[in-house]
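EF-hand calcium-binding domain-containing protein 10-like structure dump, as promised
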Amino acid sequence: MQADSSRERQARDYLEKHRIMELLNHLTSVLLFVRPEKPREYLISILESMRIAKLTSVAFPYFMDNSNIVAMFEMMDTAGKGTISFVQYKEALKTLGLCTADEVLKDDGHIITLDKFRDEVNKRTQEIWSSF
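structure tokens r here:
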């Protein structure tokens, strides 16, 4: 029985160390957002782009471009105030596969503007890509 829990712990540690769940969540979100005709080929192309970027030290591919980020922000900012709530911000990061359900995000009381949202999406995407 203890060997099973040890193997489970090792597996969990491995997944956390290499941020596998974040990658899979993000790839799934991108796949559902883009909805390509050939999903397997699309996923292979994303992973190949990541591999090339890593080998050549070029910028990692962003699959949510600025117009997508703006559109998502505007859907949440229904009143057109230029801000969204912290709850909306966290849910958007989860939807994009950039935040796990159990991740604790600190609500510092500041409003979430488009710039802050864009910066966080890009930063978290970069962190996921660069961990591979």
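The radius of gyration is 17 Å.
lmk if u need the other ones
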